[in-house]
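anyone seen this seq b4? input:
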Amino acid sequence: QVQLVESGGGLVQAGGSLRLSCAASGSIFSINDMAWYRQAPGKQRELVAVITSGASSNYADSVKGRFTISRDNAKNTVYLQMNTLKPEDTAVYYCNAWVLLKTWRSNEFWGQGTQVTVSS
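predicted toks r here
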């Protein structure tokens, strides 16, 4: 029905920057909240940032002031600009979206994840 495809992960030194992208495609009427989660080895998946269709955003305390979430509604794409990266930011990052389908049903969808590794 809907596919979320992430890109932009990789290996970066501490203090560096990365920009993640997630493009949604499929039977989409509209997209409500879009978010980024992350999961480090041995830890639970946690919310990193969320943005509403109206561009209001919220962040986990651990990334406030360093990460910025944004979206392009025309492209059904959400971004995560990550600056001043720390080794503890190392995780698999997942895109998440609540989608109103053309069938008038609302479902939650996840991307496949992209690895972010920050070396010290």
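The first strand starts at residue 2 and ends at 7. Residues 48 and 93 are 9 Å apart (CA to CA). kinda curious what u guys think
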